[in-house]
TrEMBL record:
This is Caffeine-induced death protein Cid2. It comes from the Eukaryota. It comes from Hirsutella minnesotensis 3608. GO terms for cellular component: mitochondrial intermembrane space. Belongs to the MIX23 family. It holds the Pfam family MIX23.
Length: 199
């Protein structure tokens, strides 16, 4: 079974370290989504029905031999795919909350305040210098994080749609989108996790 990177220890420092956040998302996507065709192919057991010598004389992609068994697909979805998606969802949700919260520990707050004060004191005369009105304030790290989270959510949606298309082609005849099965898995997973913590 594929080894999926576990969810990192969620702290504001992890979120503000854009390199660490991006690395986690990249590694998680690489482990499951980027190689989804290989993962699904690995679920097929070709010798199960026996070898048909006639199969080498024709190419039939619609054959039932190319469809993955329902149990293998369900196991892959429940134990590999959805847990990877859940870990990334938790990271993006947590970091999204950090991005919308106040940040009293921002090391650049004093620098931004000084730059803003200096900008208020500037004399602007566009007749002498047409560029004198230009001022590019330094972005707060929460703003940078919010922009990064928006971008990564967009990437995540594209990745999940592409991955789900491959899974559906090989595992199912239905054409439902990934959102409902993932939500159902999450609800069952959360209920199971709560049950385990109360015991």
């Amino acid at each position: 079974m594929t080894r999926v990177p576990g969810a990192p220890n969620l702290t504001p420092q992890f979120c503000f370290s854009s390199g660490a956040l991006r690395d986690f998302l990249r590694l998680s996507r690489a482990a499951v989504d980027d190689s989804i065709a290989q993962h699904v192919n690995a679920l097929v057991t070709p010798a199960k029905a026996g070898f048909d010598p006639q199969s080498t004389s024709r190419r039939d992609l619609t054959s039932s031999n190319h469809r993955v068994g329902a149990d293998a697909c369900q196991s892959f979805r429940d134990n590999v795919l959805f847990p990877a998606w859940q870990a990334r969802t938790e990271v993006l949700n947590y970091c999204g909350l950090v991005a919308t919260s106040t940040d009293p520990d921002d090391p650049e707050t004093a620098i931004r305040e000084a730059e803003n004060q200096k900008d208020r004191e500037r004399v602007i005369d566009e007749r002498l210098d047409p560029y004198s009105a230009r001022f590019s304030p330094r972005e707060a790290r929460t703003q940078s994080l919010a922009m990064l989270i928006r971008q990564e959510r967009g990437v995540e949606n594209i990745v999940r749609n592409r991955t789900w298309d491959v899974v559906q082609q090989r595992c199912s005849t239905s054409r439902e989108k990934w959102e409902r099965p993932f939500q159902e898995w999450r609800e069952a997973h959360v209920a199971l996790a709560e049950c385990n913590t109360t015991q």
